[in-house]
Specification:
Elements (H helix, E strand, L loop, with lengths): L4 H7 L4 E6 L2 E6 L1 H26 L1 E7 L2 E7 L4 H7 L9 E2 L12 E5 L2 E6 L4 E6 L4 H8 L8 E3 L11 E5 L1 E12 L3 E10 L3 E5 L4 E12 L2 E14 L4 E8 L1 E3 L5 E15 L3 H4 L21 E3 L10 E4 L3 E7 L8 E5 L3 H7 L2 E8 L7
Parallel strand pairs: 3-6, 7-10, 12-16, 18-22, 19-21
Antiparallel strand pairs: 1-2, 3-4, 5-6, 7-8, 9-10, 11-14, 13-16, 14-15, 17-18, 18-23, 19-22, 20-21, 20-23
Length: 366
């Protein structure tokens, strides 16, 4: 408010005027002098009030988190104006000034609000109310120790203003050593004096060994990466030498030359038509009848059809030419049962290893 002092003085000028009172001529002040005095008194009061108002009233700014509030107040201290505005400050929040500090005009009062953030680790989840500015500061405040390989998502320098979770991946590296067998290879040599289908080991091969160092990366206990970091041969493999036969003819005891497809080494036994060998008595309708339907006779042999199909012509070492026409419950794999007429011959033959030749002849049609 501006006061027009010249105008104010004019109101109090000592102008007088003459007037009659009780038949006498007397001096008196003009009425404007009294009006001016009253106005002056009011103005003085207003001026005093304004002065007091301007002294007591303070314009301040309260910066509450991301919000700024401009207010006028007659309170004396920071704590009083905070209470006046009903602003609550939590235990994790921070008032940037002393609450007992006296207010000053144009003062700025800053309140930093703690942000809730979840720190997720392999061991536990931590809910933190923090004033930290970055992820790294929040992790340090929470007392979480990071390993040299641990990963933090988002990164340590990321402002936490717009994030709610911090993920910590516990990273561990282990190096393991595995030993692997290196299979040996056989060198094959042909032997024209050895029957086709038969093989003979000249030099036995030996496997080698390879040692491999592997780095395995685990994140929160689960394998995420496997990398070979070193390989070395600790034992070289040794090749074997095998001779394979190419001979396809044989000379029988009578001097007959017979061609064969291949030879096999088998375990031979003997049987006859008696109950001891077949479990059938002479009065049984199947007595002496083979699996193929032929009647037993010398030269009939029992085989495993998965190894030698029925109807195949054979030459059995020490027995002669034979026909695969029967089977037996105990004749499995590389086994053959030779028929003899006499139980004595069966007993005498016993069990022995022999060569069996698959003859180059058409199969017998039953």
């Amino acid at each position: 408010m501006e006061i027009n002092f010249p105008r104010l003085r004019s109101l109090f000028s000592s102008q007088k005027e003459w007037h009659y009172k009780n038949g006498q001529l007397k001096h008196r002040f003009k009425k404007s002098v009294y009006a001016g005095a009253a106005i002056l008194a009011v103005l003085v009061l207003v001026l005093a009030a304004l002065t007091i108002y301007n002294i007591v009233k303070k314009d301040i700014v309260i910066a509450d988190g991301d919000q700024e509030i401009n207010i006028s107040t007659f309170k004396s201290t920071v704590a009083e104006v905070i209470a006046e505005k009903g602003i609550e400050i939590g235990p994790d929040d921070r008032l940037a000034v002393n609450p007992n500090q006296k207010l000053a005009d144009h003062m700025r009062i800053e309140i930093k609000r703690a942000k809730p953030i979840m720190i997720i680790t392999q061991e536990r989840d931590i809910l933190l109310h923090t004033l930290a500015e970055t992820v790294g500061e929040a992790i340090e405040e929470a007392g979480v120790t990071l390993g040299i390989l641990d990963k933090v998502e988002p990164g340590m320098d990321t402002p936490i203003k717009n994030i709610d979770n911090i993920n910590i991946l516990r990273v561990e590296e282990r190096i393991i050593t595995e030993t692997e067998t290196i299979p040996f290879e056989n060198q094959i040599k042909e032997n024209e004096n050895l029957e086709k289908g038969l093989a003979r080991v000249i030099t036995k091969g030996k496997d080698g060994k390879k040692e491999t160092s592997i780095k395995i990366v685990y994140e929160n206990g689960e394998e995420t990466k496997r990398e070979i970091i070193d390989e070395k041969i600790i034992q070289e493999p040794v090749a074997g030498v095998i001779e394979e036969g190419t001979k396809t003819t044989l000379v029988s005891s009578r001097g007959t030359v017979t061609r064969f497809v291949k030879a096999m080494e088998m375990v031979a036994t003997a049987y006859d038509a008696t109950f001891a060998s077949t479990g059938k008595h002479p009065d049984h309708p199947q007595y002496g009848i083979t699996r193929s339907g032929l009647r037993v006779r010398p030269g009939i042999v029992a085989v495993d059809p998965k190894v030698i199909p029925l109807g195949t012509w054979l030459y059995v070492e020490g027995y002669g030419e034979a026909l695969a026409a029967d089977t037996g419950g105990a004749i499995k794999g590389n086994r053959i049962d030779l028929y003899f007429e006499s139980p004595d011959d069966v007993a005498k033959y016993g069990k022995r290893k022999i060569k069996v030749y698959i003859l180059d002849k058409p199969k017998y049609k039953f």
